[in-house]
Amino acid sequence: MKKWPYYIKLISWGMISIFALAGCSGKLAVRDMQEITEGEKLEGPEKENLQTVEMKRMDTEIKIPEIWEVDWSGYFDGFNGAAVIYDVSAPGFWIYNGEIARTRRSPCSTFKIVSSLIALENGIIHPDDSIHKWSGEVFWNEKWNKDMDFGGAFRDSCVWYFREVIDEIGPELMQDELDRLEYGNCDISDWEGRMNTNNNNRALTGFWIESSLAISPKEQTEVMERIFGEDSVYSMQAQNSLKEVMLVEGQGDGGMSIYGKTGMGKAEGRTDDKNVTSTAAKEIAIRLVEDYGKHTL
């Protein structure tokens, strides 16, 4: 029996993209084969022997995921979108609208998953003592105009809160963690978010919002496996704290626990004709993931 799926949904540039991870453990071998780190420290036969042993281990223990292209257009009701589900038990990817699913775009507020993880793992966020004081600046979202704790900031997608958290993480640690997660292009060069032509408020923008950092829905699915899979390098305490705030409330009658985060962005202030909203993406994602679970459990 498969374990409950995780899902995260991404809205960006007038289209809906959904990425999901079905099952909460498993091995994912989608990265190009790399030279073995330990082997690089050795020379001659000793190095060759270590590489041979490691290659044999990988051949026997890791299954290369298959990829299936599917038609899930019925879920999108006319939206221009894509969906990716990775099932760890297959292992394999189910991909709808592959061109969009493999196109890198700004993660926007879905990046709160990763910034939260890094902050939790490194003691920058303590869930029981996580209040940040409101500056008094009145923001467009009334929910942000108050002191915020971690749980509330995540669920209300409070940008100023996570701008402060990311500044506490700092560029060096952030770069190291994104490299370790192989998070899209790993580009945090526009730390301040000056490339964002839709917002110049320092408290409400950064490299992850319509700026230098970019990642595709398929890559985001792979990152979720690196965070929550059985080979994760992150502590269970950090994972559990993150899952607690990601749990989607009022998710329907599918009988499974669904975890997620919406994100929304616009390319140069433009969207498609159809009204793209976080609510629409959430509803599509829940239906798709629940139906997948019903047909595969």
Shape: globular
Q: Which sequence of SSEs, written as H and E, runs from N to C?
A: EEHHEHEEHHHHHHH
CATH architecture of the largest domain: 3-Layer(aba) Sandwich
What share of residues are in beta strands? 5-15%
| Helix/sheet category | alpha/beta
| Strand segment count | 5
The number of helical elements comes to 10
User: What oligomeric assembly is this protein in?
Assistant: single chain
Mean pLDDT: 82
Largest sheet: 5 strands, mixed
Uncertain segments of ≥5 residues (pLDDT<50)?
1-14, 24-42
Number of domains: 2
Highest CATH level, the class of the largest domain: Alpha Beta
Features:
297 residues; alpha/beta; Beta-lactamase; 37% helix; disordered N terminus
Can you describe what's shown?
37% of the residues lie in helices and 10% in strands. It is built from 10 helices and 5 strands; from the N terminus they run ββααβαββααααααα. The chain is α/β, with parallel strands linked by helices and 297 residues long. The termini are close together. A 5-stranded mixed sheet has the order 1-2-4-5-3, with helices on both faces. The protein has 2 domains: 6-30 and 65-296, DD-peptidase/beta-lactamase superfamily (Beta-lactamase, 3-Layer(aba) Sandwich); 37-64, no CATH class. It is globular and about 50 Å long. Strand 1 (6-12) and strand 2 form a beta hairpin. Residues 1-14 and 24-42 have low confidence and may be disordered. Helix 5 crosses helix 7 and helix 5 runs antiparallel to helix 9 (236-246).
